[in-house]
Amino acid sequence: MKASRKLSLLIALISIGMSAQNNILPLWPKSVPNQKETAEKEVVELTEDGIVWITNVQKPTLEVYLPTKRTATGQAVVIFPGGGYHGLAYDWEGTDIAKALNAKGIAGIVVKYRLPWSKSITKDKNVVPLQDAQRAIRLVRSNAKEWNIALGKIGIMGFSAGGHLASTLGTHYKDKVYEPQDDADYLSARPDFMALIYPVITLGAPSTHSGSRASLIGENPTEAEVDYLSNQKHVNKETPPTFLLHAMDDDAVPVENTTLFFYALRKHKVPATMHVYPTGGHGFALALHDEKLKNWTNLLFDWLEDLD
Fold this sequence. Notes:
- Helix content is 31%, strand content 17%.
- By secondary structure, the protein is of the alpha/beta class.
- A hairpin with a 5-residue loop joins strand 2 (43-46) and strand 3.
- The radius of gyration is 19 Å and the shape is globular.
- It starts with a helix and ends with a helix.
């Protein structure tokens, strides 16, 4: 092989590698709202199942995975991993999902959001995840042109407690929960669509996930605190079109969370698609080793394509 051809091949390989790399950005340009400096340290560890588990988030970030320009559809999905508001299953319900979206030409953007029980949070612990969620989608909108993302095609996706956060953003996007820090904060925080995967929706009995509820609003919340973040109660005609997925035998987050949200969407004539599998349990993510469940991502991709 001639030297010039070798050089061209090397440049091409480097370019491909660069296009596949992820980009990590700080979520907040200045000070992180409702947070103080403490001795608490962010912890990243592997669970016994080999999942990257993050706790004590101190510096919330966006991790951006972009498809190649040739394959890009213009759609982007901002992803909120689950973990009961106590930690983040960061690869299992985050970066793995972003890579699967990339394979279909969709930008996948993972949010490492703060957790309300952290000792670094100073006040209003229940809205801290929403602060990060609103900022995340606004930051994506502000970078849409650079990232080859079409305005009007920026949605969100959440798993379990991350599904609660996504549904909170989808129903509370107009709430003012922080002071603007730059021009991005004057952009809309409304998602163009939502995908909620075995989501926590209600904080009320008997269908809530007790761990998420305790982490978010404490052991003895007021009725007003419960109602504010029981998101089926805040659906209206402006709520984004929604894809819902759950398993009937989920013994961690009851399937009623999904059906409650579906019926609220139906009441307000919001386009919604719901898939309920008889088995699958909780936390199955991509479900690559479950012959019955692993097709769910194709259902999602078909739904996303139909949104265009």
